[in-house]
Amino acid sequence: FRLCFEVDAEDALYYLETIMYICFMIDIVITFNTGFYKKGYLVMKRKEIILNYIKTWFILDLMASFPYAWVVD
Description:
This protein is 66% helix and 8% strand. The protein is elongated and about 50 Å long. A two-stranded antiparallel sheet has the order 1-2. The protein has 73 residues and is mostly helical.
């Protein structure tokens, strides 16, 4: 709604939006530390986790969670 109609976030909406941005950014950090399954085996090596995440969901997660309102203003 705010993006389409260029309405400023005020009061509770501002705080809710800020909390959502922070939660999505924390999700990216957590995903960099979460193992994944490869060919039926759980991979827990940090380097492999990071490479797998960057190759798969990182770009989409970054675009979805980037705080545009903080940067564009």
